[in-house]
Amino acid sequence: MTSIAEAALHAALGFALGVGALISLRKNVALYAAAGSRGAAIGLHFIRMAIVVATFVLIARLAGARGLVFALCGFVLARLIALPRLRRAR
After folding, report:
1. Element (H, E) at 90
2. Which of 3, 19, 56, 71 has CA 20 to 30 A from 50's CA?
3. How far is the CA of 5 from the CAs of 1, 11, 37, 59, in angstroms?
4. Which has the closest alpha carbon to 8: 66, 90, 84, 56?
């Protein structure tokens, strides 16, 4: 059984991962928009996706399905909170 502390830890990890993914997504979009930066943009995109997938796989292996669900909830919560703020910051 998952304790509240473990659930909060996994949710916080997912939240931090989500914020990091969104910040790097913003940089990624800027690279795609810049002339001559396609290679860097594609590289950053693959690195960003690899980090997110590897982190979720690691959480699933170490904490099981419940830990993964809490991490995914934190990831989605980060998107819900950070995305409007990042849009306003343009």
Report:
1. none
2. 3
3. 12, 10, 43, 15
4. 66
